[in-house]
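Q: what sequence does this backbone want?
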């Protein structure tokens, strides 16, 4: 496991909280009780912060609202549509509601809407095989073909494991095709890092995010301040994006 992946897993709210609690126990046994108490309090505070819906609405909303989602027929006409592999909170319609496959909105649905609206003549799908099986690009291509997009209109980029590689390998394809402007499709949460990565490669992307997921649900009993395990679990995506933006900035990738 590389350092960015290790950090991404360590800083996940629940993982970091457990790690800090274990450290607090060790320090307490070594008679560093004040330091141990401070670390234990930080651990509890960290996990409590990310279990509150209001925290996700604030921190996640800052990223999701950077590039607002608009209807496909209101997007400009560009040379190609680029779809990045991955999903956020299982592509669920709303971050704070249980997963429902029938209402999930995968990124391919956003790309399909753009294609059917005549916003671009081709779709480039980008993503490697994360589990050693079929690549994300291949699976997205199949999903698009099943919805009526002709094979000749789909190009697969199946080498990329990260957002950085999405940008690098897709840019190589685009340069061969003499394309420099694209509609970029990913989740609203992931869009700031994706846009910056493609811009760094000399591509001019137009943000075409999937609908935002971190929004107040229509449940009458929804509470902004009640800790929730679903919110805590999903918050790892927000933390990952902020860490990703920091790492990419430090490495000069954005």
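A:
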């Amino acid at each position: 496991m590389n350092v960015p992946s290790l950090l991404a897993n360590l800083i996940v709210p629940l993982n970091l909280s457990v790690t800090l609690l274990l450290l607090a126990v060790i320090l307490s046994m070594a008679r560093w009780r004040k330091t141990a108490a401070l670390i234990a309090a930080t651990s509890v505070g960290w996990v409590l912060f990310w279990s509150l819906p209001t925290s996700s609405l604030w921190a996640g909303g800052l990223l999701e609202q950077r590039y607002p989602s608009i209807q496909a027929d209101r997007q400009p006409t560009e040379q190609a549509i680029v779809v990045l592999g991955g999903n956020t909170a299982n592509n669920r319609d709303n971050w704070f509601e249980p997963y429902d496959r029938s209402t999930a909105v995968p990124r391919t649905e956003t790309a399909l809407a753009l294609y059917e609206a005549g916003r671009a003549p081709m779709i480039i799908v980008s993503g490697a095989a994360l589990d050693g099986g079929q690549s994300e690009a291949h699976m997205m291509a199949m999903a698009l073909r099943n919805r009526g997009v002709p094979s000749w209109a789909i190009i697969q980029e199946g080498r990329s494991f990260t957002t950085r590689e999405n940008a690098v390998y897709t840019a190589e394809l685009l340069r061969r095709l003499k394309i420099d402007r694209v509609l970029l499709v990913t989740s609203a949460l992931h869009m700031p890092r994706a846009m910056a990565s493609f811009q760094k490669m000399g591509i001019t992307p137009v943000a075409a995010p999937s609908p935002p997921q971190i929004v107040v649900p229509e449940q009458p009993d929804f509470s902004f301040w009640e800790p929730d395990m679903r919110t805590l679990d999903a918050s790892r995506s927000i933390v990952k994006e902020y860490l990703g933006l920091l790492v990419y900035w430090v490495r000069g990738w954005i």
